[in-house]
């Protein structure tokens, strides 16, 4: 299915949002841009003003995710988005001023996804129960393009239970575990041959009880006479990619599983009762891993698919390399 609704993270102070379309868009471009980005988790960048006048135009942070005070899953990165590009020559210094602390030592690194977004993820998943803090001391820091930071930012969050879901496209199943123990195995249908689902691990972006999904918003079809046209509001929606992948219930596929074998437009379908149950189990940052689809892994910046990059690939996008968290 597909939807159009604004917002992926609430922006600095007043809430400028990253706009976009999207849900279950399997056949349109694989490249994510501001035009197809979407999510409605609403973390904000809290700031304390500095009395020092900047040496040039201000360098501001548009968002820091997760929101301070939240509890998130073990695959959740710290994601920082800047309002203006950060030059490659300035990134090591900027990383140095974004200190990550934790209640237990964790190895990890920053990685730049373009010139405005930097994510910090652990080398492996976060340990459950860890308290994490990001202190972005940007005052006086240059972005390498003539702008200088004028604020300090701080977010503290906690890592909750280790909830994971492993989806087999070919087996039509989703296996849910909590803290390593099996919980339930659910019947699913994933994308069709024409609109395959993304493979790989995607941390949950957000969830909503109802989402308006349209085929037109993701470039599948705007023709009401097309067999692929849809315009529906559907319940129990778990958001996995900015380009529009969800786990949810679909009225067009009410009894998913190997018996029905109906393909979606790229989403993962659950029955109504299973979708409601799963909605109650997961939170932002929980890893959903999909295997068996021909499409390949979702790009790391398509939502929070950071763990789709191997560690060497991750470090290749870091200006300062691997480090460990400071003691919190």
Please give a handful of descriptors for the protein shown.
mainly beta; 5-stranded antiparallel beta sheet; 22 strands; disordered N terminus
Fraction in beta strands: 25-35%
Q: What summary fits the major beta sheet?
A: 6 strands, mixed
Average pLDDT figure? 85
Give me the count of strands: 22
CA distance, first residue to last residue:
43 Å
Helix-strand sequence = EEEEEHEEEEEEEEEEEEEEHEHEE
Which spans have pLDDT < 50 for at least 5 consecutive residues? 2-22, 26-44, 46-51
User: Radius of gyration over alpha carbons?
Assistant: 20 Å
What do you see in this structure?
This protein is 6% helix and 33% strand. Strands 1, 4, 6, 9, 11 and 22 form a 6-stranded mixed sheet that branches. The chain has a 5-stranded antiparallel sheet with strand order 3-5-8-7-21. The chain starts with 46 loop residues before the first strand and ends with a strand. The protein has 328 residues and is mainly β. Strand 17 (231-239) and strand 18 form a beta hairpin. The longest helix is centred in the C-terminal third of the chain and has 8 residues, at 272-279. The model is unreliable at 2-22, 26-44 and 46-51 (pLDDT under 50). It has 3 helices and 22 strands.
Give the SSE layout.
Layout: E1 47-49, E2 58-59, E3 61-65, E4 71-72, E5 78-82, H1 91-96, E6 98-102, E7 107-112, E8 117-122, E9 131-137, E10 148-149, E11 151-159, E12 163-168, E13 173-178, E14 181-187, E15 200-203, E16 206-214, E17 231-239, E18 246-249, E19 268-270, H2 272-279, E20 287-291, H3 311-316, E21 323-324, E22 326-327
Parallel strand pairs: 2-10, 4-11, 6-22, 12-20, 18-19
Antiparallel strand pairs: 1-11, 3-5, 5-8, 6-9, 7-8, 7-21, 9-11, 12-13, 13-14, 15-20, 16-17, 17-18
């Amino acid at each position: 299915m597909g939807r159009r609704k604004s917002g992926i993270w609430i922006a600095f102070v007043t809430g400028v949002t990253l706009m976009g379309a999207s849900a279950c868009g399997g056949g349109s471009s694989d490249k994510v841009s501001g035009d197809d980005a979407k999510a409605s988790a609403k973390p904000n960048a809290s700031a304390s003003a500095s009395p020092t006048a900047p040496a040039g135009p201000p360098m501001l942070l548009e968002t820091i995710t997760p929101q301070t005070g939240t509890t998130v899953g073990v695959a959740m990165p710290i994601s920082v988005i800047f309002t203006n590009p950060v030059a490659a020559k300035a990134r090591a210094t900027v990383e140095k001023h974004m200190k990550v602390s934790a209640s237990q030592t964790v190895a990890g690194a920053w990685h730049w996804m373009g010139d405005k977004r930097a994510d910090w993820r652990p080398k492996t998943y976060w340990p459950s129960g860890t308290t994490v803090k990001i202190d972005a001391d940007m005052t006086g820091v240059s972005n390498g393009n003539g702008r200088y930071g004028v604020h300090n930012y701080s977010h503290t969050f906690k890592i909750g239970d280790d909830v994971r879901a492993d989806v087999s496209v070919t087996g039509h199943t989703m296996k849910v575990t909590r803290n390593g123990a099996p919980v339930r195995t659910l019947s699913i249908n994933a994308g069709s041959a024409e609109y395959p689902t993304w493979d790989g691990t995607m941390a949950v972006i957000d969830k909503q009880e109802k989402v308006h999904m349209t085929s037109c918003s993701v470039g599948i079809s705007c023709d009401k006479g097309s067999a692929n046209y849809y315009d529906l509001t559907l319940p129990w929606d778990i958001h996995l990619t900015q380009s529009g992948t969800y786990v949810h219930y679909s009225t067009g596929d009410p009894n998913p599983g190997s018996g029905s074998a109906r393909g979606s437009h790229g989403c993962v379908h659950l029955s109504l009762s299973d979708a409601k149950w799963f909605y109650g189990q997961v939170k932002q940052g929980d890893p959903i891993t999909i295997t068996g689809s021909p499409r390949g892994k979702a790009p790391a910046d398509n939502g929070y698919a950071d763990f789709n990059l191997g560690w060497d690939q991750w470090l290749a996008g870091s200006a300062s390399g691997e480090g460990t968290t400071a003691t919190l």
